[in-house]
Amino acid sequence: MATEMTTTQHFGQWQVYPGNDIASLALPDYFSIYLSYTLDTTTHQGLGLRISGSFPFARYMSVNIYGARTGTSLGALTDYQIMTRHPNKNPFVAGNDEDESNREYVFNVEPQSDPASEQTGPARENLLTYDPEDLLNPAIPDQKLALLTV
Q1: In principle, which of 54, 97, 119, 146 could form an S-S bond with 2, CB 3.0–4.6 Å?
Q2: Where are the beta strands (DSSP E) in 58-122?
Q3: Buried b (16+ CB within 10 A) or exposed e, 89-123
Q4: Pairing of β 73-78 and β 62-67
């Protein structure tokens, strides 16, 4: 999956997690490769992410957000749910060509309290929101949001 950060400042880096690594989160597919990005929302309160990339030539793709310290699933987009803008097409949507060459997407991850989350229209497509309260773990002071793609 060709994914890149589109922000001007990077607060971390993408990590690769093979599905056969016993330290991987949740119950991964043994034969998949996962990409993970963690954002410390304690240090960067109210910060959202805009992720752009190309759909993979693969059987499946998804984007998930978790409370990194709580392990709580906070939202997900499955491959066929990700909307594209013309001339791009989502190859995971029934009826679209799986070998489509124009296969770019953009999605956003934002805290629910962000006023931009209230907007509607094309800028709000593919929006994953989270409640910052869901990141709290009393035993661990920092609040981290994890983005996981497969």
Answers
A1: 54
A2: 62-67, 73-78, 104-111
A3: bbbbeeeeeeebeebebbbbbbbeeeeeeeeeeee
A4: antiparallel
Helix (H, G, I), strand (E, B) or coil at 149: strand
> What's the one-letter identity of residue 84?
T
Highest mean pLDDT among 22-31, 99-108, 113-122: 99-108
Angstrom distance (rounded) from CA 14 to CA 110: 18
Contact status, residue 131 vs residue 114, Cβ threshold 8 Å:
no
pTM to 2 decimal places: 0.79
* Average pLDDT score, the chain: 81
Backbone conformation region of residue 30, classed left if phi is above 0, alpha if psi is from -120 to 50, else beta: alpha
Q: Which amino acid appears at position 6 of this protein?
A: T
Give me the CATH number covering residue 67: 2.60.120
Structural domain count of the chain: 1
Q: What is the pLDDT of residue 101?
A: 96
> By three-state DSSP, how is residue 9 classified?
coil
Per the structure, the complete domain to which residue 129 belongs is given by 2-149
